[in-house]
């Protein structure tokens, strides 16, 4: 089994559900469910800041069993003059998942992003079972209908809260992750 965690998307989903992920518990839970070959975590980082709030999480994950994939976030000014940050990791997830498909029989994608429907279908054609972890219990739902339909199994993130979660700390931005740029 291999895990693919879309950091921004998972952060947005857990924020909407009111808890944070305990990544040590997440690894333990999925190791109980099968032979875990690899656990990937994807996030964009803002490199021009003296301190990045995501850096401690990324460092911890890197030292504790995750393969961390990062790229620089891009900053731009929108038409209204607001500075926005964009850090979509979809292509990195897609490339790594296709590469791992010949080495595993089950992948677990932590993202409800509708853009992943074709990726899920392509991995399934290689004989790999695909489970999607996201939520439809948030407002709005974080899992796109087409991803839920394509996946071999849909795991409601809220049902995992007691196994892999911890209470949200202070109501802030948790581990420093930004909201997902997911469009459904």
Description:
The protein is of the alpha/beta class. The protein has one domain: 5'-nuclease (Rossmann fold), CATH 3.40.50. Helix content is 35%, strand content 26%. It is built from 7 helices and 10 strands. The strands form 3 sheets. A 6-stranded parallel beta sheet has the order 4-3-1-7-8-9, sandwiched between helices. β5 and β6 form a beta hairpin. The two termini are 27 Å apart. The C terminus is likely disordered.
Write the layout of secondary structure elements.
Layout: E1 2-6, H1 7-17, E2 19-21, H2 23-33, E3 38-45, H3 55-63, E4 67-72, E5 74-77, E6 83-86, H4 90-100, E7 106-110, H5 117-125, E8 129-134, H6 145-150, E9 153-156, H7 157-164, E10 165-167
Parallel strand pairs: 1-3, 1-7, 3-4, 7-8, 8-9
Antiparallel strand pairs: 2-10, 5-6
Extract low-pLDDT stretches.
171-184
> What is the top-level CATH class?
Alpha Beta
CATH superfamily: 5'-nuclease
The CATH topology is given as Rossmann fold
Distance between the termini: 27 Å
Radius of gyration: 16 Å
Trace the largest sheet across and list its strands: 4-3-1-7-8-9
């Amino acid at each position: 089994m291999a895990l693919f965690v879309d950091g921004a998307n998972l952060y947005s989903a857990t924020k909407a559900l009111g808890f944070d992920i305990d990544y040590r518990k997440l690894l333990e839970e999925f190791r109980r469910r099968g032979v875990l070959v690899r656990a990937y975590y994807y996030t964009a980082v803002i490199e021009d800041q003296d301190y990045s709030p995501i850096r401690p999480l990324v460092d911890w994950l890197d030292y504790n069993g995750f393969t961390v994939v990062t790229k620089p976030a891009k900053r731009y000014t929108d038409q209204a003059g607001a500075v926005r940050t964009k850090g979509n990791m979809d292509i990195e997830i897609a490339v790594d998942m296709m590469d791992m498909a010949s080495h595993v029989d089950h992948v677990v994608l932590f993202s409800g992003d509708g853009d992943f429907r074709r990726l899920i279908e392509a991995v399934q054609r290689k004989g790999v079972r695909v489970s999607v972890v996201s939520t439809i219990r948030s407002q709005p739902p974080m899992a796109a209908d087409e991803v839920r339909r394509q996946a071999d199994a849909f795991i409601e993130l809220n049902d995992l809260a007691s196994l892999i979660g911890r209470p949200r700390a202070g109501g802030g931005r948790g581990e420093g992750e930004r909201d997902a740029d997911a469009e459904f």
